Amino acid sequence: MEGARVPGKWSALFRFELVKMSGRRITWVPFLTIAIVAALIVTVFHHAEFKFHKDLFKSFKLVFKNKDEFANGYYMAVHSFNPLFQMLVPLFISVASGIMLAGEAEQGTLRACLIRPVSRQRLLLSKFVVLWVYSMLISIFTVALLTGLGVLNFGTGTLYTMNVIFNNGLDGIAIIPADEILGRIILAGVLASCGMTVLAALALLISSLVETASMAYVITLSVYFAFLTLRAFPFLDWLHPYLFVTHMLRWQQCFYSDIKYGDIFVSLIHMAGYIVTFLSAAVLLFKERDIKS
């Protein structure tokens, strides 16, 4: 009898879900893709002259004679975070989340899992924990790889960024001393991984509602990019604090001249609230779901 209850234990469920996820080839595709993208970024960075960037800095009365004065490894890494954490990483998290619930229901393996003596709540939460670990690993890998390649190829130095790129205001530039940047990058990576965890919880909620993996991640990405689009309109600034993507992207605040720790704390509270809300709804819906195949 004791052996029959083992699958229901948290540790056993976590190991079970972890083994399943690590056994899927698609699980490792994001790491390979990010590595290829990072290599392409380094190649482009080597050959780019950054004339447009120099002109932009010049408009703020910051004149650079050549790109080596500002285009260092930190500049490459930090400016690469934006497209990766706004577009590429969310895609990977959404696909992984869709496969874990709707994908297993579609393949029939979810029904087989539920035959064992395990509660649906524990099963769903164990899947979320695995997704959280996966989100952390992808985020850490992205930050570490880009920062490492940037520093190895282009060295270190003062970081110059335009505030508008990081949603820190429409005007001005941020100048961050070299000795502060590594700490800020680590903080940005932690906040970015928290944001990806919010998306994982949302994706798991949607995955509990639909029948196929493709439908799960298409709907998740549609919701994500719809909210991201709403955030792009300045005249909707009154709505921005209520959008979960606003808090997901709070890591950008790390690259403002003076970090607004109060805003970061508020966003962490919001993200925790979103995770609890999405997960609670997913558990309730999954408990009532009829797994037919």
Topology:
Layout (H helix, E strand, L loop, with lengths): L1 H4 L4 H14 L5 H19 L3 H9 L13 H35 L1 H7 L4 H35 L4 E4 L10 E4 L1 H30 L5 H19 L12 H5 L12 H28 L5
Antiparallel strand pairs: 1-2
Helix pairs in contact: 2-7, 3-5, 3-7, 5-7, 5-8, 5-9, 7-8, 7-11, 8-9, 8-11
Mean pLDDT: 85
Q: Which bin fits the share of residues in helices?
A: 55-70%
SSE ordering: HHHHHHHEEHHHH
The strands making up the biggest β-sheet line up spatially as 1-2
> What is the gyration radius calculated from CA atoms?
21 Å
What proportion of the residues form beta strands (DSSP E)? under 5%
Query: What's the β-strand tally?
Result: 2
Class by SSE composition: mainly alpha
The major pleated sheet works out as: 2 strands, antiparallel
- End-to-end separation in angstroms reads 28 Å
Give the CA-based shape.
elongated
In DSSP terms, counting alpha (H) and pi (I) runs of 4 or more, how many helices? 11
> Which stretches of 5+ consecutive residues score pLDDT under 50?
1-8
Task: Write up this protein.
The chain is mainly alpha-helical and 293 residues long. It is 70% helix and 3% strand. Strands 1-2 form a two-stranded antiparallel sheet. Helix 5 runs antiparallel to helix 7. The relative contact order is 0.14.
